[in-house]
Every structure is written in structure tokens, then in C-alpha cells.
Design goal:
Elements: E1 5-16, E2 19-26, E3 38-43, E4 53-56, E5 59-63, E6 66-74, H1 78-84, E7 91-98, E8 110-116, H2 120-131, E9 138-145, H3 154-160, E10 163-168, E11 175-176, H4 179-186, E12 195-200, H5 203-212, E13 219-223, E14 239-242, E15 250-253, H6 254-257, E16 260-262
């Protein structure tokens, strides 16, 4: 595997239940990252987990000559639990930025973000990037979570977006139901020729969004969340099937050809 770069933890805190924001001091080359790209992170030394973990880039900023990468993640297993216990000054090995990011056309006047759970991370980076643009692009976000206590990334999005609509599976905040149902309610508000849709979240959510947009001409790009071992296309552990324009299906690596794809090209299964 291609070697990564030494980095150190600058800060870490739990934002909402089970979700952590870790800031890493990284080399200046990371300033070139674009929204939608990701990094592979591994703990320095021999302490398990040995394999690197993929994380979307939540934000990148500079202070003086220093470069900082923000990683927003949810604890889902032993690996992310180990990361959540890191403290200021702890060493990491990071590789990146990696993968294909989002396309942002000059003609785009309105951006709709549809985030499920921790899928908010790459979309937040995209929102920040577009919010700094001088074109005056309007950004609306649909943010889904399981419950009130797990609504993640809201504070930052509310500072950037003109509106943030929230859904929860249990109805404890906002719309009661999946975020795709909330978006379906408002679909008619967005002109098809000037609106771009970007989404990231669990596979069932993306499958539902794909069905909603089946007969719609609007552009929609999705960032896929897949398990990865190398991040550079060597291990073939993140392969998915594409079927662009009804053509014969092909297998692609999410880490290399993605993680961003046209939603209509991806085979999500049933």
C-alpha cells in the first residue's frame, strides 16, 4: 500500500451522541482537496486496528502556515471507537486527498443537499465551498437522522445554507419519516435546469432517492459510503456495479473511480 503522511491530532470532541469532530494538523498539500474527496487514516504504531479507515473530508482550513483537516465521524465499531479516544498530540498516518470529488457547474444557481446521518460530512464541505463562491448560489439542505439526539452537523449547515429542513425516523424533530420523503414534498420547488442535487447517506436512502428521480431530468451526484482497505484501488474491496444509460453493467472501485457518481448510474439493488 502507498505510504501515508505523518499528522497529529489537534483537537477532538463529541458533538452529538456517538459523533465526533476531530481536527488534524496536516501537510500543506491537503489544501488542494476538493469537496467529495476523502482520506485514509491509520493509527501510528502497532495498536489495532491495523487497517486504515476512510473518512470524508468535513473541512480544510489554514491558520498561518498550518493546515488543518476536519473529520466528522460516527463511532460504529472498534476502529472508530479507537479513533474517538485519541487526544491532542497523538500521531496519525493519513493518505490523501483521494478519489473523485463533486462537479460544480458554473450554471448552477441552486444547490440541494440531501444528507442521511454521517453523510452530512462531505456535503458540509461542499456547502462551505459553494458558500464562499461569489456567484450567489442558493443552498438548501435536507438533513435526516434517526432521532433528535443524533441530528449531526446542523450548527455548521445553518450558518451556510438558506434553509435546513430536518427529518427524523421517530418524529422527535421535524418531518416524521425518511429524508427522501421530506424532499419529495418539496421537489416541485426546484427548477430542473438550474438545480443540482448532491447526496450522501445509507444505501437504502440513496436507493429511495434514485427511484424518486427516475423520471426527472435534474442532475444528482452521490457520494458512496463503502468499506475500504487501501483507498487507492489496489485491494478491490470497495467495488460497486454501474449501469450508465442502460448499458451493460460494469464494476468500478469507489475509492478510485468514485466516491462520487451520477445517482442514475449506480446499481443499489433491492
Amino acid at each position: 500500500m502507498k505510504p501515508g503522511t505523518f499528522a497529529t491530532v489537534f483537537s477532538q470532541r463529541e458533538t452529538v451522541k456517538g459523533h465526533f469532530l476531530m481536527t488534524v494538523k496536516a501537510p500543506a498539500s491537503f489544501r488542494e482537496a476538493i469537496p467529495g474527496q476523502f482520506i485514509m487514516v491509520r493509527l501510528e504504531g502497532s495498536t489495532p486496528p491495523f487497517l486504515s479507515r476512510p473518512f470524508s473530508i468535513y473541512s480544510i482550513y489554514s491558520q498561518g502556515n498550518d493546515t488543518f483537516v476536519e473529520i466528522f465521524y460516527k463511532v460504529v465499531g472498534k476502529g472508530t471507537l479507537a479513533f474517538s479516544r485519541l487526544q491532542e498530540g497523538d500521531a496519525l498516518n493519513i493518505l490523501g486527498p483521494l478519489g473523485r470529488g463533486f462537479d460544480i457547474p458554473p450554471s448552477c444557481k441552486k444547490i440541494v443537499l440531501i444528507a442521511g446521518g454521517i453523510g452530512v460530512a462531505p456535503l458540509s464541505f461542499l456547502a462551505q465551498h459553494c458558500g464562499e463562491d461569489t456567484r450567489g448560489t442558493e443552498i438548501i439542505c435536507y438533513l435526516g437522522a434517526g432521532s433528535l439526539e443524533t441530528v449531526a452537523g446542523l450548527d455548521r449547515l445553518e450558518k451556510i445554507c438558506s434553509a435546513v429542513e430536518i427529518s427524523t425516523d421517530d418524529g422527535s424533530r421535524g418531518y416524521h419519516g425518511p429524508v427522501t420523503g421530506l424532499f419529495k414534498r418539496d421537489m416541485g420547488l426546484y427548477p430542473e435546469d438550474t438545480t443540482w442535487i448532491y447526496s450522501c447517506g445509507p444505501r437504502p436512502m440513496l436507493r429511495g432517492l434514485q427511484k424518486l428521480l427516475k423520471d426527472q431530468p435534474c442532475v444528482c451526484q452521490v457520494s458512496l459510503e463503502e468499506r475500504m482497505a487501501c483507498g487507492i484501488g489496489a485491494c478491490l474491496g470497495c467495488v460497486v456495479s454501474l449501469r450508465p444509460d442502460g448499458a451493460e453493467g460494469s464494476l468500478v472501485r469507489v475509492c478510485k473511480e468514485g466516491p462520487v457518481f451520477d445517482i442514475r448510474d449506480v446499481e443499489f439493488g433491492e
